[in-house]
Amino acid sequence: PELSAARVRSTFLDFFRQKHGHLLVPSSPVRPRGDPSLLFVNAGMNQFKPILLGTVDPRSPMASYRRVVNSQKCVRAGGKHNDLEDVGRDETHHTFFEMLGNWSFGDYFKEEACRMAWSLLTEHYGIPADRLYVSFFSGDADSRLPPDDETRRIWSEIGVPPGRLLPFGLKENFWEMGDSGPCGPCTEIHYDHVGGRDAARFVNADSPDVVEIWNLVFMQYNREVDQTLRLLPQLSVDTGMGLERLVSVLQGKRSNYDTDLFTPLIHEIHQRSKVGPYGGRTGAADQGRVDMAYRVVADHIRTLSVCIADGVHPGMSGAELVLRRILRRAVRFCVEVLQAPQGTLASLVPAVAHSLGDVYPELHSEADRVMDVINENEVQFLSSLEQGGRLIHRTLSRMDYKHAVFPASVAWSLHRDLGFPLDLVDLMLEERGVQVDRQELDRLIQNDKVVLELQSGDRCQVMLDVLSLAELQRLQVPHTDDSLKYQYRLDQ
Ligand code: ATP
Ligand code: MG
Ligand code: MG
Ligand code: MG
């Protein structure tokens, strides 16, 4: 019988806890605590950062952590890790996902970490070794970083053949927390969904056939402010594996959306829609568009549920603005593509709670509140859609149709005042067969749009890309002139 996602998760946690003496630490909320460099928690290590930086209060329980395991709620939308654009288009990136991880803080290092990972994947989960590819750090002459020969040797002793043990550079296989601080090489495990061939060239190549599943980071250096590298007194291991991807491997599915983490949700969405069932297609053609809508809505309702339960509400800046966009994007896909009635999104919350509530109980206890927040925001958005429709209609009725160029100021006001994504404005005008004064609109956008990059110690970029300078000042967001870059990006 197929391994359920719940069993996949508990097998991971039990393996490290019971077999290898790790302490189980619960997931932190997705709203980062005391870390202004982050919009959302985006990796299991976020809550352990003080340990790595050596800033833990000695009286805190964290001070005694040596071996730790957890499954962390992560959101990658906005900021340094922004996977929002991929969601729905591919079948491996979500805005919300669970990251399974094990840590050593000054305890075991490379050898034990690799052996445990390999034993879990191949013996406990039973993944055929010949479907796995492993990458290691090739070194980087420019930054005087040596290749990670030790990791290569360990994998080779474990039995990974040379053709499946692949060197990669800084971008893929070196991890740094920021411009300075702890850093080190990493080694990643990839799974070939196809098999029976040499798939080395598909590793780290954005192929749906060979998917990265597990990242093992070895923190061995500290990069000083003057950029010199020193060996850390305490060596640490930080790993992260995407649960949804692992489950797809173990359930023999090519797509995360075909696993039991998503199929009940997709079924519920179908029940409320007026279109055919989910077909698992990608691409721009009709069924591909419908299927993308299914994936987007299934993804976004998980993110909305988890975020709102953790106290991040759709709003006007930072993480809250990102969430507002996610909500509006989900509403549009429900209405425009799936032809589902108002209230659909909120009605999916119990299914999310059913799927994840045993592990993250706030999804049960906060479900009513989550549904209220979603419904309120949906009503608001739908009513501004209507208002926008009326505004367009009024403007058109005053225009001379023969030379119809829609005034840019009205299009801009749809965006600025009614909060429509710009591509929706385009679409609404296109549907009515009118062209907007593109040049003038671009000018308004250029003048008014601001991308704020808050450079922090974490080198993490916080992007608040619909705020004007005036709004920044009103919200008292710290910024300097040269940290502001004007940039226009089509709103999702
Ligand atoms: P990718 O290259 O596929 O974007 P990544 O290298 O950005 O992944 P890491 O930061 O190494 O990912 O995170 C560790 C693991 O978390 C990945 O190996 C993957 O299994 C999982 N993961 C990362 N991003 C996502 C996402 N957006 N949705 C689902 N799982 C993810
Ligand atoms: Mg990524
Ligand atoms: Mg990667
Ligand atoms: Mg990675």
From TrEMBL:
Entry's Gene Ontology molecular function annotations: alanine-tRNA ligase activity; aminoacyl-tRNA deacylase activity; ATP binding; tRNA binding; zinc ion binding
GO biological process: alanyl-tRNA aminoacylation
Record keywords, A-Z: Aminoacyl-tRNA synthetase, ATP-binding, Ligase, Metal-binding, Nucleotide-binding, Protein biosynthesis, RNA-binding, tRNA-binding, Zinc
Claim: Protein biosynthesis is one of the keywords in the record: yes
UniProt superkingdom: Eukaryota
Annotated Gene Ontology cellular component terms: mitochondrion
Alanyl-transfer RNA synthetases family profile domain: residues covered: 3-492
Domain comment as written in the entry: Consists of three domains; the N-terminal catalytic domain, the editing domain and the C-terminal C-Ala domain. The editing domain removes incorrectly charged amino acids, while the C-Ala domain, along with tRNA(Ala), serves as a bridge to cooperatively bring together the editing and aminoacylation centers thus stimulating deacylation of misacylated tRNAs.
Function: Catalyzes the attachment of alanine to tRNA(Ala) in a two-step reaction: alanine is first activated by ATP to form Ala-AMP and then transferred to the acceptor end of tRNA(Ala). Also edits incorrectly charged tRNA(Ala) via its editing domain.
Record family assignment: Belongs to the class-II aminoacyl-tRNA synthetase family. Alax-L subfamily.
Subunit structure: Monomer. Interacts with ANKRD16; the interaction is direct.
Name by which UniProt lists this protein: Alanine--tRNA ligase
Native species: Lates calcarifer
Gene: AARS2
Location of this fragment in the whole protein: 33 to 524 of 986
